[in-house]
Amino acid sequence: MIPGARSGWRQARWSEPLVYELGSPDNSGFIRPYSDEDAELERVLGATPEEKLGRMLRDRVPEIPGLSEIEVVRHFTRLSQMSYGVDVGPVPLGSCTMKYNPKISEDIARDPRIRYLHPYQDPDTVQGLLEMLYLLERWLAELTGMDRCSLQTPAGAAGELAGALMIRKYFMDRGEDRDEMLIPDSAHGTNPASAAMAGFKVVRIPTSENGTVDMEALDAALSERTAGIMLTNPNTLGIFEDQILEIADKLHSIGALLYYDGANLNGIMGIVRPGDMGFDIIHLNLHKTFGAPHGGGGPGAGVVCARGELVDYLPRPLIAKKGDRYYWDYECEKCIGRIRMFYGNIAPLVKAFIYIAMLGGEGLREAAIQSVINTNYFIALMGGVDGYELPYDPERPRKHELVLSAKPLKQETGVTAEDIAKALLDRGLHAPTIYFPLIVDEALMIEFTESEPRRQIEEYAVALQEIAREARRNPSALKQLPKNTSIGRLDNVYANHPRSVTPTFRVLRRRLQGEQLSL
Amino acid sequence: MRLPWAPAANEKDRREMLRRIGIDDVMELYKDVPRKIVLEKPPGIGFGRQLSEWELRRIVDSMLRKNKVYTDPPPFLGGGVCFHTIPAVVDAIVSRNEFYTAYTPYQPEINQGLLQAFFEYQSLMADLLEMDVANVSMYDWSTAAAEAILAAMRVTKRRKVVVAGNIHPERMEVIKTWLLGKDVNIQLVGFDRETGRVDLEQLENIVDNNTAAVYVEVPNFFGVIEDGVDAIAEVAHKRKALFIVGVDPLSLGIVRPPGSYGADIVVGDAQPLGLGLNYGGPYLGIFATRWDRKLVRQMPGRLIGLTKTIDGKEYGFTMILQTREQHIRREKATSNITSNEALMAVAAAAYMVLLGGSGLRELARSIWLRSHYAAKRLAEFEGVESPLFGGEFFKEFVVKFPKPYHTVHRMLLEKGILGGLPLADKPPLMDDCSALFCVTEAHSMKDIDRLVEAIGEAL
Lengths: 519, 459
Hints:
In chain A, 39% of the residues lie in helices and 10% in strands. Chain A is an alpha/beta fold. Chain B is of the alpha/beta class. Classes of the chains: A alpha/beta, B alpha/beta. At the A-B interface, helix 2, helix 3, helix 4, helix 5 and helix 6 of A face helix 1, helix 2, helix 3, helix 4 and helix 5 of B.
């Protein structure tokens, strides 16, 4: 392209039918192996599944349309072109840590020597993979200042559930009846949800003016019923809880525990460790912090780690080594049991191993520092831009992320955080996390990670400035955006209305056949 | 140092960015971290230094060489997951970086393709199960089962759960862990030693008016297909308990779908639909319900739905019923699940449409024939009970040997054959002479004959 001569961005816009419109159940693009043997097998067996299954025989072919291979490829390729990930452009969703996913990791994770391994294969036949997992476990423990990690948990929320259950079981074993979990109002929604699943009552701790845990409110909440506190540090405002050592002392002095939500580790890895801050149990999101991709919603890996006597409560099995041999340690006297089947989401675990192996300790630290520079550089670029403000002590440096409020712009023009998000999409930039944390009005929660080039960060700041100008000039036009994406703004009311909500084609089919389906 | 994945980490950019921020030293950005816990030097992890791709490849290769891969013949190892073939096209699709580097589609307009793929997965899975609503995934079968039981407790407001004793033992463990924080009474139903099926009489005696749910797997841990499903549904529904069924979705090419016999919630794992073994994960947890207000509103996990543009001119897709979820409802959410196995759902969708209904039927049929052929051939040996249970089975089956199985297993390994799963330490059987074998479309008759011959030599 000629410098300066840019045309607007447009996303691919295929009019791609549903697979149901493309194929029929009689078609198939698949040739099953050894199909020529089936007749011989029937002869040898003297029976067919149709005869043997009797009343458990499916009476009709599943209503699954079949397509030829080229049709499958075109359909999903077109759908992919109407999708947007980090490889397409910045995805600065706050607290989601959408960093670049190294290609070598994808390559290695697909190696048949990992992919074709059966989980019940004898440990002696998978020593290479177990060694990798063992090293990963040791590295993560060292990086976080914990003693041991369980690789079982398939996502951050599963790690939180494991942690909350560990706390619950710990107190059950001690015969202590503690049923309250303290959670700041700035916390990720998964924290209260996980605590509730483990049977705790959630006690909300407000945030003080300077953006950290309100210490007076914390003091007032502490009691003999307190089981622990779930904290993320830096918190969701991107602010480091500078009174963390005091908080830890307060909790520990009454016999309660500290849980660390590792979703926000990226800006501090290699600089300060949750274990040194006083946390007893932590989880890490390997699909965020350690470069494994997010897959449009998963698979993730949410390793959970513990210190001291809490190690006994980690979900089993744990990866272990005796002499030169690696094995799974199932010993479980106090442990909470299993959080899922087998050992964990191996593919993202391998990717995290590769990420750490290639960067090393120093590289991880440099990546953290760069992510924090990117955050604060962006804040500097946004300084003095009318329409946006940085709530909670704007002088304090942020870490992995920052939260802007578009409240001034909304008051002035009626343009909301959602409108701003859609206007960003219209420029080919993914929106930040919006309306979170709940304590900030019209929140725009932005996390660039270390992966974004400087120029991209500048472009994002310029886009926000231009959108603010546009909001003053023509606010109603902004409400109609986006227009350059594969589809225009979608109707959430229709999507969720009891009479129109349609989660599957089957429901649509039933409605088209005249059924009145309401939810 | 140069960081390949952090483009602004060069000295010039850094200096200019710091100047703009208004500081000289990067550590000023960490001035609010208590000094005494700031690390003096970077942690000594990794291999002590940065590695290039080539160096990394060589290290990884030296490790992976110690793994043993079984493809000739493919593993006969069962236990809830089996070796299946994966069409290359499935990999090609999930390797599209627009898909795999995307986040959860919070902004639907820029991720329509991903959302359509998710909607198609939900729709195809619903049709395979003959259920109305399927979500876009749980972690795996076990957590789906645990979440189904939790949902049933919320719907019925009851605190007793009845679980078939012949389910996969690891799933039983997971269910117990997830219910640890709840005041709940879990009761197991025994199974018939002849058929391997649920003891219906016992089931009827245990299910009462306090029962939230009855959970049964079809096929069960032994590979046996429960044929009393209509009766089980009746027992559950008579007491207003929910009927939760766990399935192998591939079996549904020929086996009756749970929607046809009154299942309220269906769970399972779509690993057989085009996903790698991956030494245990990632897999793809299935969660589906009937069209029922309470069931759908109590569903955990992400749901995608059809909608229109605000001008009403076009149809599109977006995340729906989000008020059930943690980011809005917090401690009152139906579940804490956020990240799931979404990319695996795209793989399963591609796999299902590549096969189509008829292809799925033929494939399931072929697996039935092959596994029955293996069972029949093993029964030729004196003293071998194959299959051990008389109930009709799919894909997996238990074989009982006249001597401890581990000696047989070791001899098979020496011949490069990965045999069945030893059941010596596996509830519900705990029998050191028995093993759980799995035969799929990946096994030719010749592969099966090789297994049979090798076992003959080991006996």
